[in-house]
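Subject: mismatched residue count in predicted assembly?

I count 432 residues in my input, but I want to confirm that the predicted structure covers every chain. Input:
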Amino acid sequence: MYTQGLDAKTEQGAQPSPRLVTEQDAALQGRFQERVDAEEKIEPRDWMPEGYRRTLVRQISQHAHSEIVGMLPEGNWVTRAPTLRRKVALLAKVQDEGGHGLYLYSAAETLGVSRDELVGQLLSGKAKYSSIFNYPTPTWADIGAIGWLVDGAAIMNQVPLCRCSYGPYARAMVRICREESFHQRQGYELMLALAQGTAEQKRMAQDALNRWWWPSLMMFGPSDDQSAHSAQNMAWKIKRFSNDELRQRFVDATVPQAEFLGLTMPDPELRFNAGTGHYEFGAIDWTEFNEILKGNGPCNRERIEARRKAWDDGAWVREAATAHADKRRQRALKKAG
Amino acid sequence: MDRKDWPLFEIFIRPKNGLSHKHVGSLHAADARMALDNARDVYTRRGEGVSIWAVPASSIAASDPSEKASLFDPADDKIYRHPTFYDIPADVKNI
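Triage response: the counts match. Full output below for your records.
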């Protein structure tokens, strides 16, 4: 999801060096797998395979980075929201996303990595975040499309993650899902207003749908047979459903919503199969996705530059907080002494 | 990075009077006072609490998960600590 099938690319060259698996290690691995199979949660400092820990650090931190970077395409329209109602809703959504980033960085830190280390990886370009946030938001309707489609796709992925095997990640997801429920409604309500508005507004809504539909489908990542690590992540119950399964659920849920809006999905091959009860849809062209992963998407550079600028411009705030804490400590000592 | 001196705080929120503080997550802050203010911003956007505890993570003593079995073993066979161990005839009320 916000972690996609980024596995396939990033895990290459990150394999542990071959080492003798001792009898004790094999026993620990066996017991660990038994616990996961029994739906027991793994908590911080429980014994866990190094691969499990590393996979979680990567996935949770990518998810956190996605939330933070995700504030940018929407933040773009906060000062230009057409009404106060739309403005407060968008501000609240963007604030939530900042908070979600924190919940996830906190969860990642329980695995023995520091928040500053993770932020450093984002700013250096080493860490990945969801491809969807590398697209621009040229019109107000894009804000509606993002809430409806991007948050809709995220919810599809996040609900099963509430039951993932790692306790802190699962609990963060429960919190996030509770807060996310207004995000999608905010976007859809916006699309509804446009689709039922003037001809020009409806055109704008249709144009946004045309640009956001396929990228939203790509958020779920490539077919699982493209990723060597899907099977392991399923066995470890980090991943609960396949990419294709989640994507299909999203399509089935969303097509009727588009029909209600009176908008057309930009897919001539989309049709309901009464036999299976599911919508069939056209083949995804993964070229664009792969270009984005390589850093060549429309906004990759812009997003990282914005994050670096925010970090650099915010240095005085961090320094001021540290100085303020020092001052308070000195004052307290003086009072006591 | 210049925040080596921002310790990690674990955050606990009391949802309402009558209930205990519950662990909700963590954050880094320059001192305890800022930890409380930040916790208010990031963990109570929907009126989730009436009281916040921010505890430096370094102050928390935690039992070792690898010693869980032996640590909690003494209670496992003391079934007489449970009311169901005791046979009281059904006719006896209020017990």
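Residues 5-18 of chain A have pLDDT under 50 and may be disordered. Marking this ticket as 'not a bug'.
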